[in-house]
Every structure is written in C-alpha cells, then in structure tokens.
Write a structure and sequence with these properties.
The protein is built from 14 helices and eleven strands. By secondary structure, the chain is α/β, with parallel strands linked by helices. The chain folds into three domains: about 90 residues; about 180 residues, 3-Layer(aba) Sandwich (Rossmann fold), CATH 3.40.50.300; about 130 residues, Dynein light chain 2a, cytoplasmic (Beta-Lactamase). A hairpin with a 4-residue loop joins strand 7 and strand 8. It is globular, with a radius of gyration of 23 Å. The chain binds guanosine-5'-triphosphate (GTP) and magnesium ion.
C-alpha cells in the first residue's frame, strides 16, 4: 500500500462503517454522527447549534466551548479534539516521519539506547564513540522515525553543531537530552552543553518538546545515596536553566541498558509529548476505567509502547504498567515457542482482592503489532459488555499516534 492509501484507511477508521467516503476532503463536510462514538440525537443537537459538520466541530475552541443541552461538556470536548486531529490529518496528508534528536556529552549512552531499542544487544560491547551525526531510519514501534544521533565528543560540540546550527537543530519533533547519572564530575559540562543547545533552538525559533534521559541508572546503584544525590543535582541544575525561559517545560525519565523496559517506558513518555492523539487516548481510558468501575487502565503495544494510562493513584499505575510489560514479555516468549497468542491474559491476586487483565484489542501498523488494553480491577463483569465500544474509538487514534 502507498503511504497515501495507508493514510486513507487510517482516516476511514474514524467513521462508522455505514459511511461511504470517496474523497478524503469531503469527509470533513459529513454530519457529526458519521463519526464513531457520536449518536444521532447528539448530532442533531449539534446541528441545531450550528455545528453542521465535522469541520464546524473542529472549529470550536476547547477553551470556550458552547453549552449544548444534553451533551456533557467533557464529551463535547472529546469530540472536538477528535475532529481537530482528523482535520489536521486530512489537511496535512501526514508528514512521513518524525525526527528525533539524541543529544548529550560523549559516553553518555545515546547510541546504546538506540541499539537496545532495536534489540541489537550484541553490538553494545563494541560500540565506538559516534563520529559526527549518525542518521538512521527506524521502525519505531511500527511508526516511521528518523533518529539523529549527535556524537557528543568535544570536537563536534565545539566545531560543528554550533557553527551551522540550522543543519542540526531544525525541524526536530523531539529532543532527547541524555546525561550519564554516574558521572558527577561532568554534570556541569553536561548542563552547559544543554544550555547551548537550548539557546541554539530558541534562536532558530524551534520549540520541540525536550525530554531529559537520566542514563546508566543501573538497578544495583539506584538505591545508593550517591546515585540519588546525583539525580537531585542534575534536576536542580537543569530546572534552573529551564527556569530562565518562559513557557519552557522539560520532563525526565531514568533508563539503564540492562533493563529494556526502562528504555521502552522512557520512549513512551517522550513520544506522548509528540503525539497528537495521546491526550484523547488518555481521556478515553479515563471514561473506560470509570465505566467498568476499574482502578487503572493502560493501552500498550506488544513491543512495549505505552500509548496512555489512566489511574487515580501513581502506585496503581506503576503496578499495572510494570506487570503488563512483564506479562507481555512472557507472552512474547510463549509465542516464540509456537503457542497461539491468547486474546485475554489474566493474573490473579486473590489475597489482595484484585486481578490484572490484558485484552487484545487489535493489531496496528503494517507490522501487525498486537495492542492490549490492560486493566487493574476487582470486578470484570462490565468489561465484556463495554469493551467493543471503546475499542472502536481507540483504533483510529492509535493509527494516528505519531
Ligand atoms: N552501566 C551502564 N553503562 C552504559 C549504559 N548505557 C551505555 N553504557 C556504556 O557507556 C558507554 C558509552 O555509550 P555510548 O552509547 O557509546 O555513548 P554515546 O552517548 O553514544 O557517546 P558518543 O557517541 O561519544 O556521543 C559504553 O561503554 C556503554 O556500554 C547503562 O545504562 N549503564
Ligand atoms: Mg554514540
């Protein structure tokens, strides 16, 4: 399938099956109830209020939503966001790939992280310092990505990147700034480089989301006071730098190449910053969790990308996500020895009065990667009844995640 055709299919997934779309541009002129999740009565109410089609719906502003009788504001907000994503996708014909910049001092662990992400475990041992910039096209969880790994040795930092910043720092969709948490002698140097990168971006009028990767957070040292002090020192330094600029926010994740799941969680957090649809996915997960009276839910691909989570407690979220990632590793192992993949996986904690269950929802991208909806709950009675409704809403959003 050509990229154009793939995209039409992705967009058609937003519409009810009975709706026939010949030209994508016409799709925005359809009545609101041609979208999955909008019923006819609500659609008629929208039309009465001059929201005649999907284009009108996308034009509403989330901040100043009109009050429409019988449509709760939260629901209307969700529909507006979906209409906006759809409009953008149709108008832009979707950019073909996202560009991710990996930046940080030499020896920080950038190339190693990219290697682990691609399951290239055996090359780690023989990695050499990256010479200049290494560009690579990756199939990132089934999404096309271009990674730019900027070698951090001093000669490149001093003589290359800042002499021609427009060649390196433009059109990035995401910046991952990698810092070695074990190398406290170089925190000041790392912070200094970070400041230079920020300055270059701002001068170029580029404002990609920035995620700081606290690398080499190996399991055996994480409990040590020294490592914890190191992390606090890094966050202090970096937050101070960011504080000098208005409206600039950064987030952090810690990783170690010895636990692939830390790298998957870091990428999931970072990609959520880039995603157009992650916020809507999380709204839908909230609605779902409340509808089935669960404690937490997460949508995770079999290769470990966490599209979104909902919970009212961070402990429940950590419990659910970590359990789900390990159960998925187990399921992948079972599949590798020839067992059929189970559509539903459950782990029971009878003494604690709850269970964790993963339901396979669908497969996405040309790689046919299974996606599971994971739920932490003490009662799964409502799940069977409601799951199809949410599945239909989530699929198109996953296809447009990046
Ligand atoms: N203990 C530990 N060592 C790591 C980890 N990640 C990377 N390393 C080691 O750190 C060294 C440098 O890793 P690279 O990935 O080459 O670093 P880089 O940031 O790409 O360096 P440049 O290409 O010079 O900018 C290698 O010896 C890795 O094995 C980690 O999570 N824990
Ligand atoms: Mg490197």
């Amino acid at each position: 399938m050509s990229e154009e055709e793939t995209k039409s299919v992705v967009i058609k997934d937003f519409f009810k099956r009975s709706v026939i779309i010949n030209e994508l541009d016409e799709a925005l002129k359809l009545k609101p109830d041609s979208l999955i999740g909008i019923d006819q009565i609500s659609s008629d109410k929208l039309v009465e209020n001059n929201v005649k089609n999907i284009e009108d719906l996308a034009k509403l502003s989330i901040e100043t939503l009109p009050t429409i009788e019988e449509i709760p504001p939260k629901i209307l907000q969700k529909w507006v966001k979906i209409a906006q994503v759809l409009e953008k996708a149709i108008r832009e014909k979707i950019k073909t790939h996202k560009k991710i910049l990996m930046i940080g001092l030499d020896n920080g662990g950038k190339t190693s992280i990219l290697a682990i992400l691609q399951d290239k475990f055996s090359i780690i041992k023989s990695l050499l310092p990256t010479r200049g910039v290494k560009r690579e096209k990756l199939d990132f969880f089934g999404y096309p990505i271009l990674s730019w790994d900027l070698g951090g040795q001093v000669q490149y930092r001093e003589k290359l990147y800042f002499n021609r910043p427009e060649l390196f720092f433009t059109e990035a969709d995401l910046v991952l700034y990698v810092i070695d948490t074990q190398d406290n002698d170089r925190f000041a140097e790392a912070a200094n480089y970070f400041r230079q990168v920020l300055k270059a971006l701002i001068e170029l009028n580029e404002f990609p989301p920035i995620h700081v990767v606290l690398s080499k957070s190996d399991k055996d040292i994480r409990t040590s006071l020294e490592w914890q002090n190191n992390v606090s020192a890094i966050k202090n330094k970096f937050n101070n730098i960011v504080g000098e600029y208005e409206n600039l926010v950064i987030s952090y994740s810690d990783t170690t190449i010895y636990q692939k799941e830390t790298i998957m969680q870091m990428f999931s957090e970072a990609l959520k910053l880039v995603s157009e649809t992650s916020e809507i996915i999380e709204n839908i997960l909230e609605d779902f969790t409340q509808t089935i009276e669960g404690k937490a839910s997460s949508l995770i691909s079999m290769d470990g990308l966490i599209f979104g989570s909902f919970t009212s407690s961070d402990i429940d979220e950590a419990l659910l996500n970590n359990t789900a990632l390990i159960m998925q590793t187990l399921s992948n192992f079972h599949s590798s020895i020839g067992l059929t993949r189970e559509p539903s996986i459950t782990l029971d904690f009878p003494l604690n009065g709850f269970a964790i269950r993963g339901e396979k929802l669908f497969e996405y991208s040309e790689l046919k990667i299974p996606v599971y909806l994971w739920i932490l709950s003490d009662n799964f009675d409502l799940l069977r009844e409601k799951i199809d409704y949410f599945k239909q809403q989530l699929l198109p959003l996953i296809n447009l995640f990046l």
